[in-house]
Amino acid sequence: MSSDNATIFGKKILVGLTYLDKQGQVVRKLQIHGLITRLESNNTLYFDRADGEGEFSIPFEGELEPAECDAVYTLSSTGEKIENVHFVSSWTIHPPQNKNNFINLAAAMILSLYKRIRKKT
Hints:
Distance between the termini: 39 Å
Strand order of the largest sheet: 4-3-2-1-8-5
Largest sheet: 6 strands, mixed
Shape: globular
Order of helices and strands: HEEEEEEEEH
Helix content: 10-25%
Radius of gyration: 16 Å
Number of strands: 8
Strand content: 35-45%
Number of domains: 1
Structural class: alpha+beta
């Protein structure tokens, strides 16, 4: 479904994340949801997590998968029931191929967190 950027703001999104180890085995699954707040020019979609843990972002390429009409989703980790979901998105996260990629990723995450904290103060 093509998403008109102006109509996605304030809509509820449910995101499923599956983390794999180097052998391709699932090591963690996470489901989070919240209201879409903004879209950055670098094709990053942001939403405020409903659990109060702050903002979360996912890549955005101009389309979002619509949720099933009137569906009630149950989070596997908490059993929480989620209703009135407008969009769903699933991602599989693979580990870095080598140590340097991991270090670069960690450094980028720390820098991003630092910038966010500085903005708030």
